[in-house]
Amino acid sequence: MNYKKIQTDIDQLIQHFGGYWSSLAATTRLLEELAELAESLKANDNHIGEEMADIFLITTCLANQHHYQLTEKKLLAVSVDFLDLLHEAGHIARTINATEGPKKPKSTEKIIPLQESIEKLHAVLKQLALQHNIQLENELNAKIKKIMIRDKDRF
């Protein structure tokens, strides 16, 4: 994946529609998209790739608004599942809540940097997509095109 191009494409899309949401709102959106992916996985329907693209898009938005240049992370695990994805999303939520929300971390709690958490989630998401024979980059490009048409008058 060419992260620089993907991040630029997503930034242009978001700027076209008025800019980024707050990090807390984006984290809520991430939870919503995780639930939709869970529904699709449970039903084994044909929306799995689209839901994965939504998760990739919203987490890339978080990276963009915090001015992170994402890099490719390699997974050590050969096989992943939805719980691994949820685990990584939890790290994102914990970091956002600690830095921008009302819950401050305990002195013993390790907060993973947001960029690292997003890169780990992307690695798990890409592996999960491969396990479901989904070309995540193609799904993401299709999602961006769909948003440009569907949401042109929405925001």
Question: What would the keywords be for this entry?
Answer:
6 helices; single chain; mainly alpha
Number of strands: 0
Give a quick account of the main beta sheet: strands, pairing sense, barrel closure: none
* Global mean pLDDT: 92
The ordered string of helix (H) and strand (E) elements is HHHHHH
Structural class: mainly alpha
Helix content: 55-70%
Determine Rg (CA atoms, Å). Answer: 15 Å
Number of domains: 1
Uncertain ranges: none
Envelope shape: globular
Strand content of the residues, in percent? under 5%
Description:
With 155 residues, the protein is mostly helical. It has one domain (3-150). Helix 2 (23-43) runs antiparallel to helix 4 and helix 4 packs antiparallel against helix 5 (114-131). Helix content is 68%, strand content 0%. The protein has helices spanning 3-16, 23-43, 48-65, 82-100, 114-131, 136-150. The radius of gyration is 15 Å and the shape is globular. The two termini are 29 Å apart.
